[in-house]
């Protein structure tokens, strides 16, 4: 480089490579860029337009297929070709996302009114994916054709594509209420949308109501639109008040249940068959979920589940037994599985000004009708311009027929026939002169003149009609109403238009106890004298008790029939109550486990009795010194391993008796072999304490106590026999008496149970 040529100094703020560097706060730079990203996501990706109900990718797919002339009457084309056109011309994103959007628009179980008709494997309700795009083919469905109606008649605006080489529509004309009919879902930055599908016939009826009565309320429209209409059917069980609030505010949700029926078999057997499942639930995962809960024993009323589906959903549910109530069985499944789903409603859309906002049902339908009004006006003006151009040419043709010889002379003799024609016939425009010069000789026949006059008359009548339409708002809305009637007849009737989701309102409540979700299995709890506890499956018969084996020197202390869902209460000599979950007790053929390892029980303390805890029961508690009271079962229960002190024992006494307080009389017998009978009402009901004196002793203490019904008499077991004493007058007295010798035949052990 010559010395006299020098590089100019960098400009202020310029970087080392010549780029401009400007200082800015990091917070400002981040907020500016994040806002731009958020707006791009909201407006160009995630939220649908309220006018046509489409996101940009869906709109570009439909328009690209229209450009490829894939009309419903045309042949199919490979999806790869469609995706390639969309990606190359309109949507510069990944081909996988474009193909996924195309597939979803063709799935009959995903879209209530598919915009695309597919040929090949487009997935199924089990959740299986569609085949690769090189294998599948597609074309537009009739619904998409209605969405495009008038697109070539200046009905909507176009804009340049991302590279400026093509043009794409800002919105489709949308002669079909696609937003609500097919619904939409999307997640943007800071906002989301979730609109379930609806019935097109009902939407058209509601729109007609809005045309007839512009002041119509949400309640007025709900007479026509009772709720969503899902492509997979189901039963809508949302209360009417909740539905009205959701449509009024644009936010809410709908509970949808599977449709089921009972099928009776031989010998009184039956099974339940599910024929419709909630929207967007994958059937294979649903069956897997039910099977998993069945394996975990969380569906005790269900015996088995089978999937017998073909192209029609058929899930077979077999009950555990014939005694199960079908409604109860289904209620447990609705609460535990995806057979009941809550479908959200969040009508957050872009309005006509491309502003995101949440709209109610009235606002959404009004926005669509306003769009149809704009489309009608623009199409009418476009058609009027076409008619005016054509009438201008036809007027020129008529001049030819009135002056045929002169026109022919000018064309043959003049070097510049166009100016000559315009000079010869005053009022002839340049457009007319050009059209005359372009006429063919065969058009000069008489028959052609008649056709031109007939066309001129028809166009003039159409022009007058369109001018009257544009001049009267009432006529425009009447035209839109007639169009809605045609749309309702085409898409709202027949198999496609029939409502699929039942709208029966809120279902009657079915009371399901908590234990209905847990497997209930009968067991027998066995406690030995040395404090070893275990459980065996089933309820042991009395003759089976003799076969029980224990450690050497140990024997049976108590045996209790229970179920795995029960709570077992244990009363110890220290006056404390302990509780164990039945399914936590060791099960098997072994010796079990020492109670002291499961509970904080002292080495000197022993379990006096055990029973199945039930709410609402009452028990008579007594210590060896003859003191006691009545306690409610709610005061005995505890989850602490240390138990709960209920009966207070003092002076070397210990808890001796815990018996059910079912009756009106109490019988107590002491170690001194004295029997006393007194009314139960003389024993107070307490939550904790020592109680009152039940029987007085000079020596010894309490041996046993029993609560019984006086009318039935006092019974006790003597060997294999049960003896009943009904005449208890010799032993009847007040509480705290000494008592008298028991009747002949009373057990020498001084206990009622032996």
UniProtKB/TrEMBL annotation:
GO biological process, one term: chromosome segregation
Protein name from the UniProt record: DNA topoisomerase 4 subunit A
Residues of the Topo IIA-type catalytic domain: 47-515
Protein's membrane topology: Peripheral membrane protein
Organism: Roseomonas acroporae
Family named by the database record: Belongs to the type II topoisomerase GyrA/ParC subunit family. ParC type 1 subfamily.
Entry keywords, A to Z: Cell membrane, DNA-binding, Isomerase, Membrane, Topoisomerase
GO CC terms of this entry: chromosome; cytoplasm; DNA topoisomerase type II (double strand cut, ATP-hydrolyzing) complex; extrinsic component of plasma membrane
Subunit relationships: Heterotetramer composed of ParC and ParE.
């Amino acid at each position: 480089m010559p010395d006299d040529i020098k590089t100019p100094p960098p400009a202020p703020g310029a970087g080392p490579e010549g780029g401009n560097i400007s200082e800015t706060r990091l917070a400002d730079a981040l907020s500016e860029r994040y806002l731009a990203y958020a707006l791009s996501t909201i407006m160009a990706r995630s939220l649908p337009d309220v006018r046509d109900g489409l996101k940009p990718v869906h709109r570009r797919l439909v328009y690209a297929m229209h450009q490829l002339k894939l009309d419903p009457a045309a042949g199919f084309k490979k999806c790869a070709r469609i995706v390639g056109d969309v990606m190359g011309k309109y949507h510069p994103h990944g081909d996988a996302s474009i193909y996924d959007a195309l597939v979803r628009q063709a799935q009959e179980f995903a879209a209530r009114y598919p915009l695309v008709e597919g040929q090949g494997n487009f997935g199924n309700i089990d959740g299986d994916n569609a085949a690769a795009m090189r294998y599948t083919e597609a074309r537009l469905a009739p619904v998409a054709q209605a969405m495009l109606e008038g697109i070539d008649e200046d009905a909507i605006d176009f804009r340049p594509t991302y590279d400026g080489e093509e043009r794409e529509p800002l919105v489709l004309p949308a002669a079909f209420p696609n937003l609500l009919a097919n619904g939409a879902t999307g997640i943007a930055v800071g906002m989301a949308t979730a609109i379930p599908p609806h019935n097109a016939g009902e939407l058209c009826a509601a729109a007609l109501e809005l045309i007839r009565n512009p002041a119509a309320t949400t309640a007025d429209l709900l007479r026509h639109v009772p709720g969503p209409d899902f492509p997979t059917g189901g039963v809508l069980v949302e209360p009417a008040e909740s539905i009205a609030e959701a449509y009024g505010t644009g936010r809410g949700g709908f509970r949808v249940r599977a449709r089921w029926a009972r099928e009776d078999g031989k010998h009184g057997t039956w099974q339940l068959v599910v024929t419709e499942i909630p929207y967007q639930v994958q059937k294979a995962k649903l069956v897997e979920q039910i099977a998993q809960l069945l394996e975990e024993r969380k569906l005790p009323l269900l015996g088995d589940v089978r999937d017998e589906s073909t192209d029609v959903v058929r899930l077979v549910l077999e009950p555990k037994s014939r005694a199960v109530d079908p409604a109860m069985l289904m209620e447990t499944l609705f609460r535990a599985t995806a057979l009941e789903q809550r479908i959200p409603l969040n009508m957050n859309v872009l309005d006509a000004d491309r502003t995101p906002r949440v709209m109610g049902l009235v606002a959404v339908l009004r926005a669509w009708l306003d769009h149809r009004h704009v489309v009608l006006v623009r199409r009418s003006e476009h058609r009027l311009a076409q008619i005016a151009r054509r009438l201008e040419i036809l007027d020129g043709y008529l001049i030819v027929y009135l002056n045929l010889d002169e026109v022919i002379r000018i064309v043959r003799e003049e070097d510049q026939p166009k100016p000559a024609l315009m000079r010869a016939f005053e009022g002839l425009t340049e457009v007319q002169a050009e059209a005359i010069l372009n006429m063919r000789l065969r058009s000069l026949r008489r028959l052609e003149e008649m056709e031109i006059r007939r066309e001129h008359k028809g166009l003039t009548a159409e022009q007058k009609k369109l001018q009257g339409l544009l001049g009267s708002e009432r006529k425009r809305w009447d035209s839109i109403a007639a169009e809605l009637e045609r749309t309702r007849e085409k898409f709202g009737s027949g198999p496609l238009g029939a409502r699929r989701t039942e709208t029966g309102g809120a279902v009657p409540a079915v009371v399901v106890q908590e234990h209905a979700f847990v497997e209930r299995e009968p067991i027998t709890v066995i406690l030995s004298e040395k404090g070893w506890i275990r459980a065996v499956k089933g309820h042991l018969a009395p003759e089976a008790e003799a076969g029980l084996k224990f450690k050497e020197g140990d024997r049976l202390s108590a045996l209790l029939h229970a179920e795995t869902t029960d709570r077992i209460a244990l009363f110890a000599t220290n006056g404390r109550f302990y509780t164990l979950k039945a399914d936590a007790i060791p099960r098997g053929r072994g010796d079990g486990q020492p109670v002291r390892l499961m509970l904080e029980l002292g080495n000197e303390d022993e379990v006096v009795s055990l029973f199945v805890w039930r709410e609402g029961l009452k028990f008579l508690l007594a210590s060896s010194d003859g003191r006691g009271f009545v306690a409610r079962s709610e005061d005995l229960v505890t989850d602490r391993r240390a138990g709960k002190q209920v009966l207070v024992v003092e002076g070397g006494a210990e808890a001796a008796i815990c018996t059910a307080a079912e009756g009106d009389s109490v019988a107590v017998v002491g170690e001194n072999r004295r029997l006393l009978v007194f009314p139960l009402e003389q024993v107070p009901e307490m939550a904790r304490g020592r109680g009152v004196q039940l029987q007085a002793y000079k020596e010894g203490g309490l041996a046993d106590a029993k609560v019984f019904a006086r009318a039935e008499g006092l019974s006790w077991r003597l060997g294999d026999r049960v003896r009943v004493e009904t005449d208890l007058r010799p032993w009847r007295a007040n509480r705290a008496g000494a008592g008298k010798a028991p009747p002949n035949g009373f057990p020498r052990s001084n206990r009622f149970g032996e």
